[in-house]
Automatic annotation (TrEMBL):
Protein name, UniProt field: AAA family ATPase
InterPro entries, per the entry: AAA_GajA/Old/RecF-like, ATPase_AAA_core, P-loop_NTPase, RecF-like
PANTHER family linked to this entry: DNA REPLICATION AND REPAIR PROTEIN RECF, SLR1056 PROTEIN
Phylogenetic lineage: Bacteria, Pseudomonadati, Pseudomonadota, Alphaproteobacteria, Hyphomicrobiales
Superkingdom: Bacteria
Domain Endonuclease GajA/Old nuclease/RecF-like AAA: 1-46
Length: 377
């Protein structure tokens, strides 16, 4: 699966931006230019697929906070618009999904006064020369392509807080919609990890085979146990941990009721240091290792400022793990660390995209309005 392009309009500092994407995408820029808004816009597409778009926007302050923060032209329907193009390489199918969200009209009695409302959606697929619309929603009404290949009205209307993509996906009758949902639901977003004493990363977890790391890292011990005791191959993981943590070795005992882990260090080879004893940088690096080197790789791994709390000497090892993950996953990295960006460029051969402010809006330096970079012309 490959996320080929994304488009965002009227979301926070994203006035209108479309960009093509590669296997590894590194976004670097100063604080406040809108790097995290690019990351968050992609996260909201996944929220739409899961049916939680309205909740996610409400949780970040509502539409008043989420709408374009700059000067606005007079527009009758001022909305957040998000769009992605996803290629399923195995089946040679291109999916295009668009969703729009806005505020309730003053005269509309449906919904709550200040909640985000889903206004429009469309999903199309392309397997040959032209795209075919599979689902289209305007307001509460939904049109969907039925088993006979014709567009027909779906018998149930969507509530203002619901997305049609989630409603139809749950219905189980539309294979293309279900396939797109599974692709996007598989994305993983890691917006830092808690490193305080109560952090999930520092605690044992139930011993359940875990092929993927949870986004809060709560099953990290089980991810390590799955690698050690199920796969039985931790060569790359051991190399990364030793490189970043001064020769440390990950110790993962056979799980009982709970999965646990610790570290040994060359200076203390017979003493296992427990997670509660590790520094913030050490425990965060282990969280990134679990995210990037898990038993099964997600189609997309997005990291937001992964360098936080890491010693500069750890960045080369982090870039190595990103390169390793990129062999199976598409990777998205948001950072303001120039050394990390350089290390990933050296490891993966990709040029970082520099995020800037242009006319008060977030933009990518050297990118044309079509979404192509100048060097791609």
């Amino acid at each position: 699966m490959l996320l080929r392009s994304m488009f965002a309009q009227n979301y926070r500092s994203l006035r209108s931006i479309r960009m093509d994407l590669a296997d590894v995408n590194v976004f670097i820029g100063e604080n406040g230019v809108g790097k995290s808004n690019l990351y968050r816009a992609l996260q909201l597409v996944q929220a739409a697929v899961r049916g939680t778009l309205a909740y996610e926007i409400a949780a970040e302050g509502g539409m008043a906070s989420a709408l374009w923060s700059g000067r606005r032209r007079e527009e009758k329907n001022f909305r957040i618009k998000l769009e992605v193009e996803v290629l399923d390489e195995e089946r040679a199918i291109t999916f295009r999904y668009r969703v729009e969200a806005g505020l309730r009209p003053p005269i509309d009695a449906a919904g709550f006064a200040f909640e985000p409302q889903v206004k429009a959606e469309e999903l199309s697929v392309e397997t040959g020369s032209r795209p075919v619309t599979m689902m289209k929603r305007a307001g509460p009404g939904i049109m969907v392509r039925g088993p006979a290949g014709r567009m027909e009205e779906y018998p149930e209307q969507a509530m203002t807080s619901e997305t049609a993509i989630a409603l139809l996906g749950d219905a189980g009758h539309y294979p293309e919609i279900g396939a797109f949902r599974r692709l996007v639901e598989g994305w993983r977003f890691f917006h830092g990890f808690r490193t305080d004493r109560q952090s999930p990363l520092r605690n044992p977890c139930l011993a359940v085979t875990s092929p993927l790391l949870a986004e809060d890292g709560s099953n990290m011990a089980a991810v390590f146990a799955t690698l050690v005791h199920t796969r039985g191959d931790t060569v790359e993981l051991d190399r990364a941990v030793a490189s970043a943590l001064n020769g440390a070795k990950l110790q993962v005992p056979a799980p009982g009721e709970y999965a646990e882990f610790g570290l040994t260090f060359p200076d203390f080879p017979h003493r296992v240091f427990q997670p509660r004893e590790l520094s913030d940088g050490q425990i965060r690096f282990l969280g990134l290792a679990a995210a990037l080197m898990s038993y099964r790789q997600p189609p997309l791994i997005a990291l937001n400022e992964p360098e936080a709390s890491l010693h500069p000497d750890m960045l080369k090892a982090l870039a190595g793990m990103i390169g390793q993950a990129a062999q199976a996953s598409q990777v998205w990295v948001v950072t303001h660390s120039q050394p990390l960006a350089f290390a990933v460029e050296e490891q993966c051969g990709v040029r970082p995209k520099r995020v800037i402010r242009k006319d008060s809006a977030t933009w990518i330096e050297g990118m044309r309005l079509t979404g192509l970079m100048e060097e791609d012309d």
